[in-house]
Amino acid sequence: MLKLVLVAFAIYALVIGLLAIFQTSLIFPRALVGPAPSLPGQTERLTLRSADGDELHGVRIPGRRNDTALLLGFGGNAWNAESLALFLHQHAPDHPVATFHFRGYSPSTGTPSAQALRGDAVLIHDVLSDGAPGTIAVGFSVGAGAAAYLGAVRELKGVLLVTPFDSLHNVARGSMPWVPVRWLLRHDMNPLSDLRDRQIPVAILTATGDEVIPPARSEALIAGLMASDSARLHVARIPAGHNDIYSHPEFNAALRAALAHIAR
């Protein structure tokens, strides 16, 4: 019996060790990012340098109007930033759009991390927002963490979050209750904490059948913001999964309604 206990403990320790070593690759699966699409001819290619010397590569697509807010997009962990830019441009063509590849996501250099996403969001905003009639941070999935953080530290017109979470810590703990997430997770992001006390318009689109971000985590974010009575909140719940929400017939109208809520 003692040997069985020792073997079980050794296997458990090995699994925990592997999760600790590979958590960055699991949270930021760079190898799964698809190819970039063809972008409109007026697209501008951008390069920024972080304070620690990494290069960030992105694109900016002009909008049809000059008086609309810049949509600063932060995609999911396997979403090509240029695909995201085209997606936002197609769904909100009046707005200028800008997106950047996360650190370590080619052609950006460096190593991805939650801390890097937050810091880079601020850098990108501070460079691109100059002269723009306001900025709306738009975050999808893990990118919701960067968008929410930006809404906490900069004056934005609003924040739009799609399939978001209250905190990555809670997502990981719910998915792997047998893992000591509190001590293991190095990449936590906390949209609820970031936005709870901010007087800022927030729009949230959730997927009720989300198999990646449990709907309970999106609902915890919504409930926490409603309880804080600070953010002006707009919510749309779409009967779709984490990835097919974007092709759902209700998505386009929900996105436009969310932007209208922020702009009013």
Automatic annotation (TrEMBL):
<dbReference type="InterPro" id="IPR029058">
    <property type="entry name" value="AB_hydrolase_fold"/>
</dbReference>
<protein>
    <recommendedName>
        <fullName>Alpha/beta hydrolase</fullName>
    </recommendedName>
</protein>
